[in-house]
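User: Hey, my collaborator sent me this sequence without any context and asked if I could get a structure. I don't really work with proteins. Can you help?
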Amino acid sequence: MAIATESAPAAAPVPVLRAGFWERSLAYVVDGFVLLVPTIIVNALINNQSTAIGVNLLISLAYFSYFWSSAGGGQTLGMRVFGLRVAKDDGSPLSIVVAIVRWFGLLVSILALGIGVFWVAFTTEKKGWHDLIAGTSVLMKEPQPYPVQVSWETPPTNARFFAIPLIGILARAILLIPHLVVLYFVGICVFAAVLVLWIPVLVNGRYPAWGYRLVGGYIRWQARLTAYIYGVTDRYPTPFDRFG
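Assistant: No problem. I've predicted the 3D structure and written it out in structure-token form, which is a compact way to encode the shape of the chain:
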């Protein structure tokens, strides 16, 4: 006797989001700044202009071929900034050979008065000539819910003294003076940290854990001070309290 079972509905296909002209252009701008450093060095060391151009092209070929391929994660440094990655049309990563073919296709696209690059803006598949030559696509990350949320529990009762106009805010401000003094110097440390935190993000695509604790704790501390001084909560703020 056969038992009828209800089959589970097929999962909806995940939409593929292809990067448009402007996202890809901004990524190339970042890559251009990255390649500017070796370009300056080569031009300073090599007097022959033709030779310098050849060396710079080889550096560009090595840079893009490596990062476009599976060895480099399919993302140049500029693409990592904007959450883009290059893949074959079937979604698989590029081999070094395909990445090299794509680079030569990009060179052709640029030499053809840039028409091959602007082709991205006028096609529904958002592909340039180099994508058509190599059979590749530039994909974007799926949009995710915003990861930062701010919420406070409504207290059952509020302190009436702090509700007195001006006096209540002034009293809270006086109570927060120790926090404000310490937070000022912590803010200087956070600013100094932010000046170097972009380096591991740009290279590895990950925000360092120590930076997350420092900057995140600083922002949470500021939020608790703001909530307290405006009467959203009567709970006196505590520094770097992750769950406070």
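In plain terms: The CA atoms of residues 179 and 239 lie 8 Å apart. You can pass these tokens on to your collaborator as they are.
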